[in-house]
Every structure is written in C-alpha cells, then in structure tokens.
Amino acid sequence: QVQLVESGGGLVQPGGSLRLSCAASTSIFSFDTMGWYRQTLGKRREFLARISSGGSTIHDASVKGRFTISRDSAKNTLYLQMNNLKPEDTAVYYCNGHRPPSDYWGQGTQVTVSS
Known about the structure:
It contains no helices and eleven strands. The protein is mainly beta and about 120 residues long. The strands form two sheets. Strands 2, 4, 5, 6, 9, 10 and 11 form a seven-stranded mixed sheet that branches. It starts with a strand and ends with a strand. The mean pLDDT is about 95.
C-alpha cells in the first residue's frame, strides 16, 4: 500500500522560509507526477507545484518565484522549498502522487505564517 508522509510544517514569521518533505513508501518514479497542494478551512484544495517522473516542473503563478518543488530519488522524498512566506500562505499542505487511475495523498502538514 502506498503511503505518503509529509513533514516540515510549523510556525514561521512573515518573510521566513520552510522546507516541506514528503516521504514515499515506494519509488517516486512509480508515479507519473508528484505534487504539492494546500487547503484552508472552507476552501477547495489548491494546486501549488508538480514534478513529472522525467523531472519537468510546473509551479502555479501564485507561488512561482517563492516556492520550488524538488525531489531526492535516493530517499524517495519530495520537497517543497518555501521562501518569503506570507500570512496568506497559512494552510494545510498536502503531498500528492498520481499513478493513473489513482491519486494518493498524505495526511497533510500545517504551515502557519504569523508574527
């Protein structure tokens, strides 16, 4: 059974940085794509960034230039480097693995940006 486990969330001041990690229980190359999403209470889950098995990346315009997706295949781990964090980045962040026809999700990690 595929498991994705996020870590690295926490409380950070505006302008600060965090790096989220997503450890997969299987080879990250077994997924067509892996990505990061976030969700706040009462809102739909929002796409942030995605990386293909071939290494191509896409970042949503709302975070481009501040957030960077990457991976370490030796560790089967996906990362999201988040810089210049803003209060509106406060959310639960989720890791996704897409292996058609299925989608796999982690349990989420809370990021709170506040002074």
